[in-house]
Amino acid sequence: MSNTNIPSPPVWTNREKLIFRFFFLFFILQAIPLSVDFFKIVFGFNWLHISYGDIFNLSRLSAKFLPGADSFINWIIVAVIAIIGAVIWGKSKYKDINYDQFYYWLRVVVRYRLAIGIIGYGFIKFFPLQAPFPSISNLNTSYGDFTDWKIFSMSLGIVPSYESFLGAIEILAGLLLFFRKTATIGAAIILVFTGNVFISNLAYEGGEFVYATYLVTFALFVLWFDAQRIYNLVSLERPTAPNSFKPNFVGKTKTLRLVLKTLVIFFFVFLYGFKTYSGFHHDPYQFPRTKGLTKTAGIYNVGEFRINGRVLPYAVADSIRWKDVVFEKWATISVRSDRKVIVDSANYEQVFKNDKDRDYELAGTAGRHYYSYTVDSANHVLLLDNKNPHYKGEQLRLNYSRPDSATIILSGTNQQRDSIYVVLNKIDKKYPLKLSRRKALKL
């Protein structure tokens, strides 16, 4: 018989203990969302009517000390706190704790937090909500008027089956992380998948690169635990010691562990999945839910345009005259003209409940001004509000009439309180992208 020398479990050195104390505090602070947003979301929940947006926003939170979008400055603050805490810990009476046990519980926290974060994005891709099919306005906007990020998002939106596939991969990776024996596989999937998301955000100037780095960092930590053993066993073909620490759950502790695990999986998988499915069919979060003016959806050519009684003929470089107008299925009107548009550059994922905050259709887009509107059907009046945050307070009040199903006449005042009169003629436009979705397109 041959003897196989399996190395004994390593003993923690003082240097390793110091490094561990730092990373323990760093990841705990990152995993527990220490921010005002956390308390706003949790205490702002209507727990009897919780939405998929509530759960997504909760799953996406990370430590934030500064207002605004995610920033690596928050990471620096966390690192400084972790360094100070590690030094204090090293001088306290708790410096000689069971490091194997603490390492185990840290891995539990990290892999559960990573699972929740990746599943949060997984379901809004699996039910293609994150990148919806382009709106009519987007389909009638020049390619050069989109930011790189908007082009990337719309390119994903036109292939919902691929978006669903990406979501399924994220959900699978998250589910694997809930179980200790498959956590390494889940972390490896996330490292490859989310690493690509990180590169894409850099290449297309997206706003998710900080959060993508957050997930990649957590995946690296989970993967690191088994990485050296896998390398020794598979690449070097050396004898490899298994994990030396085995948690011992008995009695009430075992029951409590099972209950907590079940609650987490139920809330972030089953309940969230059901709510997201319902939202996909009844309330997609990227576009407003309020219905638009009945039977008006489409693009309209501006056949006649008057301002203060004066007729303005069509001119390419005219910043006053409208070129075309789009009525969406929801309560949004977009106007194309040569008037300058300051681009709304919001490009990180947020799920809003209120229509006024749902800005995906105009984010990353120039060439058009987007207006939400309310309808006074009794008096045939439209009250338009510019949705772009750079044009707050800009309103138009327009009377409307419909001589026939293909014509809309608008009259009233524009944002500068000049009187305008506009005749819109509907264009029966066919979109090859839509025609080819069910069958082969013949050109």
From TrEMBL:
Keywords: Membrane, Transmembrane, Transmembrane helix. The keyword Transmembrane applies. The chain crosses the membrane at residues 22-52, 72-89, 110-131, 151-178, 185-203, 209-227, 255-274. It comes from the Bacteria. The keyword Nucleotide-binding does not apply. This is DoxX family protein.
